[in-house]
Amino acid sequence: MHPSALSDALTATRHRSFIASHLAGGFAALAAFPVYLAWAGPMSWEEMALFAWMVLPVGIAMFLSRTGRFATAHLLSAFTLTNLIAWTAMLTGGLHSFALAWFAVVPIEAALSGRPRVVTLTVAMVGFALGGVAVGSYLGTLPPQMKAPLPFEAMMMISALVAVIYTGIVALRVDALHRAGERLAREGEARYRLLADNVSDVITRHRANGDVVFASSAVGRVFGFAPAEALGDGFFRRVHVADRPAYLNALSVALHDHRSTTVEFRIRRDADGEAGDDYDRAAPEFLWVEMRCRPVEADATGAGDDGVVAAIRDISALKAHEASLEAAREAAEHASHAKTRFLANVSHELRTPLNAIIGFSDILRQDLFGKLEYARHREYVELIHGSGEHLLQVVNDILDMSKIEAGAFELVREPFDMAGTLEGCRQMMAHTAEERQIDLTLEAASNLPELHADRRACKQIVFNLLANALKFTDPGGRVVVGARAAGGEMTIFVRDTGIGIAAKDLPRLGTPFVQADSAYDRKYEGTGLGLSVVKGLAELHGGHFRIESELGRGTTVSVSFPLNVAAKDAEAAKATPAAAAPAEPKEPAEARDNVRQLKRA
Fold it and tell me: What domain range includes position 490?
């Protein structure tokens, strides 16, 4: 048999029966040839043609074995048999021939193909051949009648007997195919029912109107009612009223759009054998389920109807988990907002006494009301002033970070010259660089375009980056601040030859209160807020923040801003809530950038 017929047991049975019967018929004709020759003597060319035609079924069987084209093979077989009967009838008396009864056998054999089109074409061929015999008999154009070896009555009896035997063989083939089909259907039904009854999902089949025609036994385990109660509209009546449109729409999409679909809905679970459509119970229990539908078409034989097969699983635990996650997320957001408000309030309250501490200590440093008597007093005043400056910087960073997280940091965009701004920042930090014996230089092109951004926020970014670079660079090192424009962006960068950062610490930097060196005995002071503020301000501008570093080789921090701010502002407006209140004024940049005197202490 052809390999294409081996994938289906019923198709293989049909091919096997066709090939076997045609080989048997062809070889029987070959075996009868010498017997007939010995009995009847020399044959005419008409008789030779009859025997040659009777051997053709062998070739048809080989054609099916080679190609697997079952319908074509049946048409060839019908054509061969019809022409054989017509030729025999023309040679044995036309309409009075004993062979005419065989015309009834041809459509019967064609029915074995299981194809209505083959049967129809076969009936047309038989009618055409019978009409040809009738016209030839009427017009007298038939070939000369062949001399029969036996009397007409004997030939008629033999022909009828052979026809009955042949028809019986065809009937046996039909019965064998029928029994094979029933057996395969029972095996398939048992196999699929075994699967449907033992999987945890509920399997249902629906008609085009949504009624259930099959429900697996898992209905009882999952929903608490018998499969028979789900038939018809029983399943639909248990679907939550609010979810029925989605349920019906999923079935409709699968049926009419011929594509798989998934829907989630609630279905009432019966307890203790409860049934019916009782929605007035005190507390009906509803389960969340997920139904996956796919369309199914009628069988190739025409059995069954188009419909939908659905696999339904209980997802109540998943829904409960999602609800708990949502509650946890809301609680976390509430805690984050509370933390942000707390930090903002505390930072605001700390700034007032800090301003007094810094101001009065500065008056004492300048000897405005008399010179201090002891050098120790001056040292203490310097420590107080330096500590106040440091604490004010921490408070300002916390305030900035809380405003950024709360979406309350208002950007005031204006076009300005970035090269001039960087030079101003470099000059303000030059004193600190000189004290630490660090070479601080500017690297910026003279033709930089104007940047449309918040000037004060950009200065704060540069100051924070320079402060970090100077802090982590040893004496004799070098710090470079600069800017470049390319690809629709302007990038501000600060590059140093300092201690560098380990690769494992790079992903954590930029998170509030996270530092690469967080041990209690760390060498460098700080809160870990500087880079967080830089990252937050960059994102508010629609830009991005990047760190490149290697231990012992230095660090480069880059902040990129879009030059085309229209598109970036629209994107940032979607991701960041509108500012709730204007930013509070800060201390002048000059005061915030004074050298921290704590290091000297």
Answer: 411-578
